[in-house]
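Lab channel / #folding
Pinned by the channel admin:
"Please post every new chain as: sequence first, then the structure tokens as a reply. Keep commentary short and put observations after the output so the thread stays searchable."

First post following the new format, from NK:
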Amino acid sequence: MTNYLEYAISLAEMVDGQTGQNPPVGAVVVKDGNIVGIGSHLKQGEAHAEVQAIHMASERCKGATIYVSLEPCSHYGSTPPCALKIIEAGITKVVYATKDVSLEKTGHDVLEDHGIDVTYRPSDRAHRLYDSFFKSKSQQKPIVTVKVSCSLDGKQANDHGESKWITNKKVKQDVFRLRHEHDAILTGHQTVLADDPTLTTRIEEGKNPKRFILSRKGDIQFDQQIYQDPTHPVTIITENENLKSPYEHIEIIYLPKCEVEQILNVLFERGIGRVLVEAGPNVSSQFLTSSFTNQFILYYAPKLIGGTGQYQFYQTDNVNPLDQTPQFQIMNTQMLDDNVKLTLKRK
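Reply from TO:
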């Protein structure tokens, strides 16, 4: 391993989605051409990547170089500043791949003021990793991913509401992994009625996201299985102040208007760093239209369903000029047997 900075970025990518409102970071300590310490920020509130790598390297930090995917921080948060730890450890050189534009004061100047050789080595790969995080911090909103599974003609179901299963088993497994990478999952009440989902992550060592259900009218009977398991709490967001929770594990949040920005404000206030929107056409369309959506993941099955546009995944009341429509950039394509996964980023 000679490209230590790329290795640090790989470590950050491995923990992407499990650090809450904090960025995923990887760090590698190198001395005399040997890796003597590595670290990743594993969870919000726990030791940062630089600190983990320094602890592993111990006394070998003196005179060493640390490679970090993101510029080391210099502020006190839930943990002490990483720049201070680097200085105390006796590290003499720092190389990092992305400037932390989410903070007013970062570590570059602090480290240089203490005589440490600091190099900013820009990386497109690292920039892609942190782009959504910087936007989230600026807006004080979670990173939003909208996921849709549909036919070639854009249908999430046929006109009779039949939707199981349009896509294949590999897509299903990939969606479980996608849930694991998010802090919360948001769906609509109509999707709960139609599919009776659990919205859990059924993979080995999988992390279940917090479950939020959007129901403006609040006309809920609580008969579906998602409401029955007391070990997996559910939060309902509604405009109906008369809706009351029948169980301790079900929380009700009342909003004057259940609009995208207000919903995301609620999630961010509750520590949600990433939310996966996995819903029907109504809710999906609201988020896809919104400027707060960061990523759109679209699974295509090679089927034509036909019928009316009732279950077309993107629907709007207004017809917008083409130059005013939401636009996305295709970041990646992947074959899942005979299904196609498109990963897109909002422009």
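NK: The domain at 140-346 is CATH 3.40.430.10 (Dihydrofolate Reductase, subunit A).
TO: also worth noting, The mean pLDDT is 93.
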